[in-house]
Specification:
- This protein has helices at 21-25, 33-36, 65-81, 108-126, 149-157, 159-162, 168-178, 185-188, and strands at 2-4, 45-47, 49-55, 85-91, 95-101, 140-144.
- It is an alpha+beta fold.
- Strand 4 and strand 5 form a beta hairpin.
- Helix 3 packs across helix 4.
- It starts with a strand and ends with a helix.
């Protein structure tokens, strides 16, 4: 994740990014007027691509194909409404993968909370017969470099095919190992 923010001083005025030897040696304690007007970077820029993975409560097969057709686009809408970009949303009957681009001001936990909470509420409100629908408590969030975004999108879009050979548990363990995340098997599955 690469984030760049402007430098600000105590009074929230733009900071000075470069050192001007002449200004440092001048009689003025804050440098020349020219240096004081040099603007800092006025915005924050962030390249934060996250491959998020979470399952249904107890990994129940509760995301039937008809629900997937509706809830996956809804998840994309939740992301858009909260200044995130959902580059891909996919999954199977028991879990979801999404590739998110987060704004500089959003924490990973907040992004996942918004997606899971909003989609769960929508399922309950839209499908009264599915009031027992729940997501698991935790999630996985794995950083993705810009050079791997296309591969990650293809992977997410091929979830049905992928899971004909691999279980969700095998897949999730592989993500944890690939990203060097230490875990205790007793606590991974809730």
């Amino acid at each position: 994740m690469l984030c760049v923010s402007p430098v600000r001083t105590i009074d929230n005025s733009p900071g000075i990014h470069s050192w001007d030897q002449n200004a440092a040696l001048s009689d003025s304690p804050v440098g020349t007027v020219e240096n004081q007007r040099r603007p800092a970077m006025p915005h924050s820029y962030c390249s934060a691509f996250l491959h998020c993975v979470f399952s249904t409560k107890d990994r129940r097969n509760s995301i039937a194909p008809d629900l997937r057709e509706r809830v996956f686009p809804y998840i994309g809408g939740i992301a858009r409404e909260n200044d995130m970009k959902a580059l891909a949303v996919g999954g199977t009957a028991d879990h979801v993968h999404l590739l998110l681009s987060l704004p500089a001001t959003m924490a990973v936990a907040k992004a996942v909370q918004l997606v899971k909470g909003g989609s769960s509420k929508w399922v309950h409100d839209t499908f009264p017969s599915r009031r027992d629908f729940e997501w698991q408590e935790g999630y996985g969030a794995f950083s993705v470099s810009i050079s791997h975004v296309s591969k990650t999108i293809a992977y997410i879009n091929a979830q049905e095919k992928h899971h004909k050979k691999t279980t969700f548990q095998e897949e999730f363990r592989a993500f944890l190992k690939k990203h060097a995340i230490e875990y205790d098997e007793r606590y991974v599955w809730g």
